[in-house]
Amino acid sequence: MTGVRRSASTWEADADLVVIGGGVAGLTAARTASLLGLRVLTLSKGGPTDTATQYAQGGIAVVGDIDDTEDAHAADTIAAGAGLCDPEAVKSIVGAGRHAVGILTDLGAVFDQGGDGAVLRTREGGHSTRRIIHAGGDATGAEVQRALGAAGMPVLFGAAAARVVASVDGVQGVIALSDNGFGVIHAPAVLLATGGFGQLYACSTNPAGATADGIGLALSAGAMVADLEFVQFHPTVLFAAGGLGRRPLISEAVRGEGARLVDATGAGVTEGVHPLGDLAPRDVVSKAIAERMRATGTDHVYLDARGIGGFAKRFPTITTSCREAGIDPRHDLIPVAPAAHYQCGGVVTDLYGRTDVPGLYAAGEVARTGLHGANRLASNSLLEGLVIGERAGAAAAERREVRAEVLDTVLSPQPVLPRAQVQQAMTAHAGVVRDGAGLDLATAELAHAAGSVPGDIAALEDSALTVTAQALVLAARLRTESRGCHTRADYPDADDSQRRSIAVRLTTDGVLAATDPRLAGVL
Ligand code: FAD
Ligand code: SIN
Questions:
Q1: 181 and 319 part of one domain
Q2: Could you confirm whether 282 is annotated as catalytic?
Q3: Does 409 map to a domain?
Q4: Is this model's pTM higher than 0.90 or not?
Q5: Ligand approaching nearest to the C-alpha of 80
Q6: Which parts of the chain register pLDDT below 50?
Q7: Domain containing residue 155
Q8: Are residues 331 and 355 in the same domain?
Q9: By CB count within 10 A, which of 298, 404, 485, 512 is most buried?
């Protein structure tokens, strides 16, 4: 590939650990590493609340003292994950839940309590019991973000990581773009905590900055990613004709408190589909909605929450979103449709956030620990961000004695397509239900990407979106079965011989290469 090479050297800094991201995973890791005495530099390309964490509604899945066990939480997680969870990862992360939430409450996070002072728990899809703690009714993420922010970790806002530099000795640092232009941070350890990739799609619950940056950074640093084809589409996102970009979520907890999914005739959407009905795992509910929309020729269904007493008090955020759209949930049906919500796969890590590149760590939504498998169980992601964020922040201390120096300060040309084109291809051909012909079309459209050197944050994001879309479609084409939240119309059943993760890497020639599930895989 040819193109201009940009020297990135207008400013320099040193750190023991660079944390990229200021959400639940990044702030947790930064705090842990600082407590261990590491010099931590945290970058966030947005402002303090431009995170998915800020928007989390339903809550945090964590086992309480009554009527629940870690084994039951693990079993629900594994059932949702449709054969691809790593049972060790599930046990380890679920088992660390109380400790992780304890740190948050020590930092001042306040979770909703009943009149008797006991923490309230709600239920969401795929959970066999009420185990989800929440804050501010449906503003759990805002409380998590507030409590971690108040811990006082310094963050360089408005600064984006453009490249993680790695040599044969592992990570050497980061090339970043701040208000002062491109600069270099020399550091032996870098943690990717960049969140998800919802902006691959035209409609998403994710904030504007959820542009797959961590996947792009990991691939170009030589790390392995996996399970990218498992995109979770949340079943109930507020529908508006022509509504694009970030769309308001109607939390699954609304169904947990009794709301029903109905079509325009009032008929139930999930009846006879799954024993848990409207509270079946998300992939099941999203597929049932997609099927009903197809059968009735419509672009949305409805959530009937009129029977929930005290709706505005229990769900203040959702009430505001509905009112802004002219809907009163006490009297009106809420129009909803599935939209891109969560990346179940990501950068492959162990249970301490280590990737296969020495010194490169990942935690939170960007990481693939094996907890989620082919479909994440609701409210397991804040939990994972807290648990692996803390462990990765501690693990980075193992690189403290490594002397790191970034010598190669150029940004090479990257394949880039305009964001709207990526979103169009992904939305049309890699949505809730895919097929081989559509994925072939997406592959062809994404192959039009031309090499260019990103000069600003938007261009960096477009380049990450492009390579991630290419990797995702590659994996989705290879997975000729339906499993979890990857549904192929041309292969409607699960195929046991494909019960294996598909991993993708960027070769030294700049080509994406995947392991095939029919071959002996690396995972
Ligand atoms: P984020 O919180 O998204 O933070 C990412 C950070 O990385 C941001 O600071 C961003 O600016 C920064 N960043 C990205 N790229 C770069 C770059 N190149 N350079 C510098 N900085 C960069 N999960 C639950 O468990 N329970 C829920 O109830 C729940 N509800 C949700 C509701 C909504 C509407 C959404 C969108 C998600 C919800 N989730 C929920 C999922 C959960 O919120 C996220 O998975 C989780 O918060 C991700 O945390 P994170 O730290 O990995 O990333
Ligand atoms: C929701 O509140 O429905 C979202 C929960 C999640 O994504 O975990």
A1: no
A2: yes
A3: no
A4: yes
A5: 2
A6: 1-5, 517-523
A7: 6-194+342-399
A8: no
A9: 485
